[in-house]
Write a sequence for this structure.
């Protein structure tokens, strides 16, 4: 059985990590058996979570893990998509993972001290008290440098949040009234979309991006529906 290494569950959602939530949702959408191992990025082959152990293999990065699973078990979600649909799906995933993600990271690591303290407690509470603050301080510096390096961190808060609203408009308009992003059945895009949207809509990180996302009723309903169907044990309330 696959061992899924990820952060401890917190905030009442599947995971505080967008990418851990994405991967676990993919495993649930494909009915792939797995066992959760609580871990921190320090022990990951690439210094980030999630990673998996599959037999004697350790694989990091959610996309590379999914590629590994497809090679091993077949493409259970996207096999019926046309080439143009696969292209659209990839473009939407890149919008979510490479742009909206960094805006949400800004809200957690840089936007306000209140948000940072919530984020800090959730991520680092399992560490011994005598090193917790130091490790958190170092990681905050590193993450803020990454946000700046990406480019998002070079903008004003007002500019960043407008970019986030633009992203959410595109995501909401594309979903429209469909049950899943690509139609009547879940695809790999839904694993990404849910993992990232639930980490905006249902986490205790307050920002104009969260407020705007909550105004998109189809996104709220979508996340509630996925939560109810695939994570019934968590009783997630999206509101």
């Amino acid at each position: 059985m696959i061992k899924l290494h990820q952060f401890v569950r917190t905030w009442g959602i599947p995971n505080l990590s967008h990418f851990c939530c994405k991967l676990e949702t993919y495993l649930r959408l494909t009915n792939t058996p797995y066992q959760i191992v609580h871990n921190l990025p320090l022990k990951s082959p690439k210094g980030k979570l999630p990673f998996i152990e599959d037999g004697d293999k350790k694989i990091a990065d959610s996309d590379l893990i999914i590629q590994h699973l497809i090679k091993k078990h077949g493409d259970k979600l996207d096999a019926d998509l046309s080439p143009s649909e696969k292209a659209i799906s990839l473009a939407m995933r890149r919008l979510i993972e490479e742009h909206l993600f960094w805006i949400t990271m800004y809200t957690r690591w840089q936007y306000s001290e209140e948000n940072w303290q919530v984020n800090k407690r959730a991520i680092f509470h399992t560490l011994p008290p005598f090193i917790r603050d130091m490790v958190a301080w170092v990681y905050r510096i590193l993450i803020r440098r990454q946000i700046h390096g990406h480019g998002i961190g070079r903008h004003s808060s007002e500019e960043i949040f407008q970019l986030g609203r633009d992203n959410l408009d595109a995501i909401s308009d594309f979903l429209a009234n469909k049950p899943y992003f690509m139609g009547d059945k879940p695809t790999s895009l839904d694993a990404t979309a849910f993992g990232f949207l639930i980490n905006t809509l249902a986490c205790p990180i307050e920002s104009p991006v969260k407020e705007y996302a909550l105004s998109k009723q189809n996104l709220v309903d979508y996340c509630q529906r996925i939560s109810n169907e695939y994570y019934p044990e968590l009783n997630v309330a999206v509101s």
Observations:
- Residues 83-109 form the longest helix (27 residues).
- The domain at 2-73 is CATH 3.40.30.10 (Glutaredoxin).
- The chain has a mean pLDDT of 96.
